[in-house]
From TrEMBL:
Forms a ring-shaped head-to-tail homodimer around DNA. Its main location: cytoplasm. This is Beta sliding clamp. It is found in: Cytoplasm. The lineage of its organism: Bacteria, Bacillati, Bacillota, Clostridia, Peptostreptococcales. Residues 1-119 form the DNA polymerase III beta sliding clamp N-terminal domain. SMART domains: POL3Bc (SM00480). It comes from Geosporobacter ferrireducens. One of its GO terms (molecular function) is DNA binding.
């Protein structure tokens, strides 16, 4: 096997496929990246058996073949090489010589036959969504997935597609994030995608690339196609919580507040809140003012904000982290906070769009 390719393109492709390579695996072959010639292209593949990432780049193929090389060392070598042509020569014993200008490395590879094949997902019926929108939907939902593996289904994001509309929902038992968007679809679909997969796709999607992301589903897997990159992931099995039952239909108090002002106040209040046991901040809502307080052994913080209140006064407590998480991802200048009672969930939504809803459970305040 012998080929020549650009150092810059190769380094970029390695960085992307490495996102699927696990350093903790007990299978040595999975610590490597598969390099395989396909026509006049070079294909790179990384997988941890849960997620697989494949990218093809332009190359001058002098002789065909395939090899698996340690992901860590290959990445470090290629990134340190000058921006020039890189030549790979692999012999029958899997010895790999990498040559670039005045540098030459020899690595011992592994036979590609031992590398697991990625699941086959037929690319027949594609759902198409703009990269910008998809990246934003991931950013506004995946952070609310559960990190605890005791309920695996909650470590994923529910994706519902129907009539050119897409909903993405994540929840972890303390908060829920719901985002709606538009998608080109030919039929309805519903699946739970691991949060880890979506976070990797969020990192992969390029701001320069304007092409749509294509999605293909089977019963057990989903394929995301972005130009010359494919991401294949298993789907999570199980029944996702009926989120529509959780979202309140009405409120007794509604606060309108500037997002940036609330974020700044919450960040200051959380400096003391995180010194306490449960990250507690207290909102006291009365007339046109919201007071945010937090008490810890080392001190107290007191913040006041101008608001517009519709409905009843209220005192309610929250985990400051869960509130900060949502304030950081809302792009709108103003938000609504909707309350029913001081022990019922609070709903956070932008004032200028109906496509995003965030629910957060309160913390009971001591009398």
């Amino acid at each position: 096997m012998k080929f020549i390719c650009s150092q810059k393109q190769l380094a970029s492709a390695i960085t992307i496929v490495q996102k699927a390579v696990s350093s903790k695996t007990t299978l040595p072959i999975l610590k490597g990246i598969l390099l395989e010639t396909v026509g006049q292209k070079l294909k790179l593949v990384g997988t941890d058996l849960e997620i697989g990432i494949e990218q093809t780049i332009d190359a001058e193929i002098l002789s065909e073949g395939s090899i698996v090389i340690s992901s860590k060392i290959l990445g470090e070598i290629i990134r340190k090489l000058p921006d020039a042509e890189v030549e790979f020569s692999i012999d029958n014993d899997h010895n790999t010589v990498i040559h670039c200008e005045n540098s030459e490395f020899t690595l011992v590879g592994q036979p590609a036959v031992e590398f697991p094949e990625l699941p086959v997902v037929e690319e027949e019926h594609a759902y198409q969504i703009s990269q910008d929108l998809f990246k934003n939907m991931i950013r506004q939902t995946a952070f609310a997935t559960a990190l605890d593996e005791t309920r695996p289904i909650l470590t994923g994001v529910l994706m519902e597609i129907a009539e050119n509309s897409i909903n993405m929902v994540a929840l972890d038992g303390y908060r829920l994030a719901f985002r709606q968007g538009t998608i080109k679809s030919y039929e309805n679909s519903r699946a739970v995608i691991p949060g880890k997969t979506l976070n990797e796709i969020h990192r992969i999607i390029s701001d320069e690339d304007t092409a749509d992301v294509e999605l293909f589903f089977t019963d057990k897997h989903v394929l995301f196609q972005m130009k010359d990159i494919k991401v294949i992931s298993r789907l999570l099995e199980g029944e996702f919580i009926n989120y529509k039952q959780i979202l309140p239909k009405e409120y007794k108090s509604r606060v309108k507040v500037k997002t940036r002002n609330l974020l700044d106040s919450m960040e200051r209040a959380s400096l003391l809140a995180k010194e306490g046991k449960n990250n507690l901040v207290k909102f006291s809502i009365k007339d046109e003012t919201m007071t945010i307080t937090s008490n810890a052994e080392i001190g107290r913080v007191y913040e006041t904000l101008n608001i517009e209140l519709e409905g009843q006064d209220l005192d309610i407590g929250f985990n400051s982290k869960y509130f900060l998480d949502v304030l950081k991802i809302i792009d709108s200048e103003e938000i609504y906070l909707e309350f029913t009672t001081n022990v019922s969930p609070c709903i956070v939504k932008p004032t200028d769009t109906q496509n995003y809803t965030y629910l957060i459970l309160p913390v009971r305040l001591a009398n």
